[in-house]
Specification:
The complex is a heterodimer of chains A (about 550) and B (about 325).
Chain A (H helix, E strand, L loop, with lengths): L6 E3 L8 H22 L14 E6 L14 H10 L4 E3 L5 E3 L7 E2 L5 E5 L14 H12 L17 H5 L9 E5 L2 E5 L7 H5 L7 H4 L23 E7 L3 E6 L11 E6 L2 H10 L4 E4 L4 H5 L4 E6 L4 E6 L9 H10 L2 H8 L4 E3 L19 H10 L8 E5 L4 H16 L4 E5 L2 H9 L5 E6 L10 H4 L17 H11 L4 H18 L2 E7 L1 E6 L2 E2 L20 E2 L1
Parallel strand pairs in A: 2-11, 16-17, 16-18
Antiparallel strand pairs in A: 3-4, 5-6, 6-8, 7-8, 9-10, 10-11, 12-20, 13-20, 14-18, 14-19, 15-19, 21-22
Chain B lengths: L1 H28 L18 H11 L6 H13 L13 H36 L4 H15 L2 H15 L16 H35 L2 H8 L4 H39 L4 H11 L2 H29 L3 E3 L1
Helix pairs in contact in B: 1-11, 4-5, 4-7, 4-9, 4-11, 5-7, 6-7, 6-9, 7-9, 8-9, 9-10, 9-11, 10-11
Classes of the chains: A alpha+beta (about 550), B mainly alpha (about 325).
Chain lengths: ~550, ~325
């Protein structure tokens, strides 16, 4: 307690402290009053929750920035899906649907030229025309790492992307505006999947950002307060950690009846509670909260199949996991149907590959069969004495439960599993130095553009150069995915992807567990809301024009 | 007195620099990498490694820690605490907008806590070993021993969900935000923080007053014919509150810890929420900024405690 070192009591005098005492009390009071007053600044808008025309929606995490150049981050994307529009979106069956574009992209026979026609008469929220030049500007910024873009890898196939990335060119040669409504993209190799890969990126306004230097463009203040946009809603403000306020965009290409949207980042418990009290109108809920929301009055619950997933990466840079029999044995050992039924309350689907819908491999796949798991492990000469660590980031109830179930089921098949709860960055660094054994994680969507599976399975996509955490490698699969990208005929592409899906299923790069259904709960005063199976952070699937509030 | 303040300020500056070195090194040496956390591995396209490397260079994280500290200090002296990695805004701005909500929460809680503690403490001291005294003891012990997050959850369940009286989270209703609306949102978190804080204060008030009531001057006053109310309120209480002033100042940094928890539970957009989310995201500049803010708060509170003590109690001299 050095604080008191300068203090000394003088004995015998204590009666005349009154003025000092009052002064001190007054000072303390003034400090407190100032603090309270300073915080009491009021907001000019005076609409409360529950108003017709005002929608309160749950945001599952706090957003960071509203920049399409930044690394993808779920809550950011969700906000952006309201305020920005993209050339293409996707529908419930994961097919590309035109948004700013007028129709499906025209892909040349050699799959090296892609032409996109924009709808006529598109406008930014400030009334300025939105043209092909904005698309060129956006794609150039995205392809240029100097802007701070984390998306440049997606443009690798575009002609001139390498020159732009290396600083040898200022423009992206392969993306040009033929006229106000026509964008032409040329690629250095066949890339029929390119529209699916880049088509859902938000288009940003050239007339606002065109004069900003490329370097650090992604960190520009515009992206913390995007004043000009093209989505169904315009950005009004982000009251830090409280809510994002949006207003209907009068210049949107369709009339929007909801006047205001508040996106509120709170914990899922609070969101569920607020749905009950009416403070929240629209909430995405975890399967474990399903019984709670189903019991609420005036609340409707809807679900949709989703390509979001939970899966386990197997570190195949370790010799013991290189034998495919070991990986197949693990899939047989885990009762995935049981996990869906018990952990998700039935709200999910067991899957056997990264390919979805029509492309998914047919047949039984890997049914729960502990005996077969045992014999496969024996065939592979598995050393049961050597433990395997299953790492995951705790906090999501279904994953936490799944981890313990999987531990006991793998043990029953003769695999000693130790559970390890880790922080996000510890998990990521274990990916990078390849020190993990098994890692349970969730996310993703390879549905709209199946060729993107290459980024998680490809031999040259090992983390951190790409998303192949498992360090799986199958050249035949790589070849098929590349061939599919060189074919412009949709039917032919589909056939190639189906083949790729079967090879992937047989090779088990990951232990696929299940795709949880997307569950939405909303107050019945909201109508016209269609649940989408797309992950919430995917742009271009909401049909805002149909949403109505009573 | 003036000399004392100057000397203390100089010592505080030195302490502050030492703390900054400590915080800076601890934050940087702790495991974790902010850059890696920026990219979801699932979203890695080709060029992920290059992005990570470029970002690390841009943020200066590839330089030796001593150089990083030097650069930081040079900027900090000019009032520039750097940019938040996550929000891309100046740290001082990020912190600045959080001070208000936290002050509001803590200020309101402190006022309520003091009023309650003095009333309860006096009642307990005057009627020692009565039902009131035991009641105050039980309340005080409960306040100290029940974790604030638990009180928060119970509060939300009872007052928001079951009774529907108070909002469950946030500082304002979106789109409203008028003073009454803010007050409505403040009641629940404010009262819980006040309750937690009032516990120890009550014990101090009671203990101090009991001591003073046994002192000679009190007996003298009584002998001179002063009534019991006058004796307690004018004589004994005034003197017994002197140690409380110091306790309150020392308690403020402690209160901030309580506020961190309350802010999390009630989605109150203050410093505490900011600190928790910044730590989760390894947002180094904000973590360092926050820690230094707390350090400054502690140093100021200690200094103010000493000065107030001297001002209130003339027996104390400052050298």
């Amino acid at each position: 307690m050095t604080i008191r070192s300068g203090m000394r009591r003088r004995a015998g005098r204590y009666s005349r402290g009154r003025i000092g005492g009052r002064g001190a009390a007054a000072a303390l009071g003034a400090v407190l009053a100032a603090g309270t007053l300073a915080a009491c600044s009021s907001d000019p808008t005076q609409e409360g929750a529950g108003d017709a025309g005002v929608l309160n929606m749950y945001l599952y995490q706090k957003p960071k920035t509203f920049s399409p150049l930044a690394p993808n981050n779920g809550p950011d994307q969700l906000v952006m899906s309201f305020i920005f529009d993209s050339l293409y979106g996707a529908d419930g069956s994961y097919e590309l649907t035109p948004r700013l574009a007028e129709a499906a992209p025209e892909v040349s026979d050699d799959a090296k030229t892609i032409t996109v026609k924009l709808r006529p008469g598109l406008k930014w929220s400030d009334g300025k025309p939105l043209t092909a030049k904005d698309v060129v500007f956006t794609y150039t910024a995205l392809a240029d790492p100097e802007t701070g873009s984390a998306q440049s890898g997606k443009f690798a196939a575009v002609e001139g992307a390498k020159e732009l990335a290396d600083g040898e060119a200022d423009t992206l040669e392969g993306v040009t505006a033929v006229d106000d409504t026509t964008v032409k993209i040329t690629t250095s190799r066949p890339a029929a999947g390119l529209p699916g890969l880049i088509g859902n990126t938000p288009i940003i306004p050239e007339h606002v950002l065109g004069q900003v230097p490329e370097e650090g463009l992604g960190d520009n203040a515009f992206f913390t307060k995007p004043t000009v946009s093209s989505g169904a809603f315009t950005f009004v403000q982000y009251k830090t950690d409280q809510y994002v306020e949006l207003a209907a965009n009068p210049n949107y290409r369709e009339p929007v009846s909801i006047e205001k949207v508040y996106l509120k980042p709170v914990t899922s418990d609070v969101a569920t509670a607020q749905l009950g009290t009416g403070e929240m109108d629209l909430v995405q809920v975890a399967p474990t909260d399903l019984p709670t929301v189903e019991a609420m009055d005036g609340v409707e619950v809807v679900t949709a199949k989703s390509p979001g997933f939970n899966r386990i990466a197997i570190n195949q840079s370790q010799d013991r996991f290189k034998d495919v029999k070991v990986r197949q044995a693990m899939l047989h050992a885990i009762d995935r149907k049981g996990l869906v039924d018990k952990v998700l309350g039935g709200a999910g689907t067991v899957v056997d590959s990264s390919f979805y819908g029509e492309l998914a491999p047919a047949g039984e796949g890997y049914p729960y069969d502990p005996a077969k798991a045992k014999s496969l492990l024996a065939e592979a000469g598995w050393d049961a004495s050597e433990p395997v660590t299953l790492s995951w980031v705790p906090g999501q109830r279904d994953r936490d439960t799944a981890a313990t179930v999987i531990q006991s089921q793998l043990a029953a098949a003769g695999m000693k599993v130790e559970l390890e709860q880790v922080q996000v960055d510890a998990l990521l660094s274990s990916y990078e130095d390849r020190s993990f054994d098994l890692a349970l994680f969730g996310g993703g969507n390879y549905a709209t553009e199946p060729s993107t599976v290459a980024t998680i399975d490809g031999c040259d996509a090992g983390y951190p150069d790409g998303g192949n955490i498992s360090h799986f490698c199958d050249e035949e699969l790589d070849g098929l995915l590349e061939r599919a990208d060189g074919v412009s005929d949709p039917a032919e592409r589909k056939a190639l992807f189906k083949q790729a899906a079967e090879i992937e299923q047989a090779g088990v790069p990951y232990l696929w567990l299940y795709n949880p259904d997307t569950i939405w709960a909303y107050r019945t005063r909201l109508s016209g809301f269609e649940p989408s199976g797309m992950p919430t952070n995917e742009l271009g699937f909401w049909d805002f024009a149909n949403w109505k509030l009573s | 007195m003036a000399l004392y303040v100057v000397r203390r300020l100089l010592v505080n500056v030195l302490v502050f620099v030492l703390i900054s070195v400590g915080i800076f090194s601890l934050v940087r040496l702790a495991p974790g990498d902010p850059v890696r956390m920026m990219v979801n591995p699932e979203q890695m396209q080709s060029g992920g490694a290059a992005f990570i490397e470029a970002k690390r260079h841009e943020l200066g994280l590839d330089r030796p820690i001593v150089v990083q500290y030097g650069n930081w200090l040079a900027d900090a002296v000019r009032g520039d605490l750097g940019y938040s990695y996550v929000g891309h805004r100046p740290v001082s701005a990020v912190l600045g907008e959080r001070v208000g909500p936290t002050l509001q929460l803590m200020g309101a809680a402190l006022v309520v806590a003091l009023v309650v503690a003095i009333a309860l403490g006096v009642a307990a001291a005057v009627r020692r070993n009565s039902a009131v005294d035991y009641g105050a003891t039980v309340i005080g012990l409960t306040a100290v021993s029940v974790p604030p997050f638990f009180l928060g959850i119970v509060g939300i369940y009872v007052f928001s969900l079951k009774l529907g009286w108070l909002p469950s989270a946030g500082m304002t209703t979106p789109g409203d935000g008028g003073p009454l609306d803010q007050l409505h949102h403040l009641i629940l978190p404010g009262l819980i923080l006040a309750f937690v804080t009032a516990g120890p204060f009550t014990r101090y008030v009671r203990g101090g007053l009991v001591d003073e009531l046994g002192a000679d001057y009190v007996r003298t006053a009584e002998a001179k014919g002063a009534g019991p109310v006058r004796v307690v309120l004018r004589h004994a209480l005034r003197n017994s509150l002197i140690p409380l002033i110091t306790v309150v100042m020392y308690q403020i940094p402690q209160m901030l810890a309580g506020a961190v928890v309350i802010e999390q539970v009630f989605a109150w957009p203050g410093m505490g929420q900011l600190a928790v989310s910044s730590i989760g995201q390894h947002d180094y500049p904000v973590i360092v900024g926050f820690a230094l803010y707390v350090a400054v708060l502690v140093l100021i509170c200690n200094l103010v405690a000493d000065l107030l003590y001297a001002a209130v109690d003339p027996r104390v001299s400052l050298r």
